[in-house]
Amino acid sequence: MNSDFILIKLQLGDKDAFDFIFKEYYKNLVWFAFDFIQDKYIAEEFVQGVYVKLWEEREKIVIVTSLKAYLYKSVQNKCLDYIKHGKIKHRYEQMVQKKASDISSENAFFSFELKEKIDEAIEHLPAKTKEIFKLNRYGNKKYKEIAELLSISVKTVEAHIGKALSALRLELKDWL
Amino acid sequence: MSSIDNNGIDTVFYENAGRYLSGEMNKEQAENFKDFCASNELLSEELKKIQNIWNTTAEIGERGDISIERALNKVKRKVHFFAKRNFMFYLQKVAAVLFIPLLLASLLFYYTSVPSKDQKSVYNELDNAYGTISKITLPDGTKVWLNSGSHFKYPAFFTGKNRKVHLSGEAYFEVAENKKKPFIVNVSDINVVATGTVFSVMAYDDDATIEATLASGKIFLAKESGGNKLKTIASVKPGQKAILDKEKKIININKANCDKVFAWKNGKLIFMDDPMDVVIKKLNRWYNTDIILIDKELKNYRYTATFTDETLSQVLELLECSAPITYKYYNRKKLPDSTFSKAKVEIRMRPDIKRKTKPY
């Protein structure tokens, strides 16, 4: 789908255009909101709310920058509103206030964008390397456990993890 | 066995870094690796960066995964995605089905300048002032409601084979049943033919379309085809509305909300999700004013409201409260011939709204 006309298509009520916009930005918008409010459930609710509004008011919404900027700005406003209204749970208060205070500085965005980039870079790894790296990093599995699970040697696991780190460093060299 | 990689750092370094960071090294090995890195600026810098990636992946791992599909379905249920079908969607889905009848209709429907043959009888003519609705009973017992700004012409007696009346504007008909003498509403060269039905016709001269909406019974749209014969170009079923595009010469048959279409007859002005330009057009006819939309982006703003006895200024005030607009009212001017011009109203988008809807 050509993203040039995506907004026009959406405003004409094209449901495929809505699907496309949803799939394209949803996940990253949720993680973006998550960085502010540290609650995945509420983050998803907020982002879904932004999409509901986008669809229901598609004919009225005036977007002067880009659709992406509009979506991020809308999510950010919702999160800041939420924080301001003190609905946030106490245990996150300090952390969030710190985040909210340096929202305008590039740090908050950098941390979010770095995650986005790393996420993307991991997806680019060769299939086996990716599987092993994810088992270790996301599945909290020891090398030995991974080796047993996949019927390979611990040495092979070592090689894959090393390969993953080297490849990630190469892909992220402009970011770190 | 070490091969050269990033910045000339060999792969063994990355393998060791992985083992070090994931706690796969024993204490001694870890100490050795740390010391080894500390001795070399390039390597200690590299280890820091890897550590950054490592920690970030831990954060990514902690937040877990989310299901886009599930979220999308949830959103779609919330917005009644599947129930609300707008015109474009509808058009796409039924284009194939509609194409053939549309083609036939447009082939059949063309303008000929054959003047309609006047029946030799006495005609009554009625000009309905703006802002008024009149009700007349025709000689055959048919009841007619005339909307604001309409012109209606009908014979004093229905003598011929049919009951033919002429309309420019909007009218609502409750036709007295007589199968032998069809009731015909003539609008330029288009005829709406009925026997005993309830329907309305909207055909203002300045509109691009002619609309016929049917509540009950059956009506046909027909063209004259010489020798006083009529050629049917479309038939309308109850609850449907035929919209004829005067310029493109095509007919669309859509579903109609009869209560809404006929509301004017009961002195009500109903808007339901109507675009602003349609709202303005109807207000202009209702109040005999010259309301102009200055900001064109307002054209597609959709508005819902019902007006009954409100004055123009009340309506404008309500509009200002409920839609993102402001208005400026200009009084009527006395013209050289002692008549008055229409009152002029300019409608603009409210400046604060304009700013608000822009994200930056």
Give a written overview of the molecule.
The complex is a heterodimer of chains A (176) and B (360). Chain A is mainly alpha-helical and 176 residues long. Chain A has helices spanning 6-11, 15-37, 40-56, 67-84, 93-101, 106-123, 127-137, 143-150, 154-171. Chain A starts with 5 loop residues before the first helix and ends in a 5-residue tail after the last helix. Residues 102-106 of chain A have low confidence and may be disordered. Chain B is α+β, with helices and mostly antiparallel strands. Chain B folds into 4 domains: 6-63; 68-108, no CATH class; 123-261, Jelly Rolls (Sandwich); 268-356, Phage tail protein beta-alpha-beta fold (3-Layer(bab) Sandwich), CATH 3.55.50.30. Helices cover 31% and strands 31% of the residues of chain B. In chain B, the strands form 3 sheets. In chain B, strands 1, 2, 3, 4, 5, 6, 7, 8, 9, 10, 11, 12 and 13 form a 13-stranded mixed sheet that branches. In chain B, strand 6 (183-187) and strand 7 (190-194) form a beta hairpin. In chain B, helix 2 (27-38) packs across helix 3 (41-63). Residues 110-119 and 356-360 of chain B have low confidence and may be disordered. Classes of the chains: A mainly alpha (176), B alpha+beta (360). Chains A and B meet through helix 2, helix 3, helix 4, helix 6 and helix 9 of A and helix 1, helix 3, helix 4 and helix 5 of B.
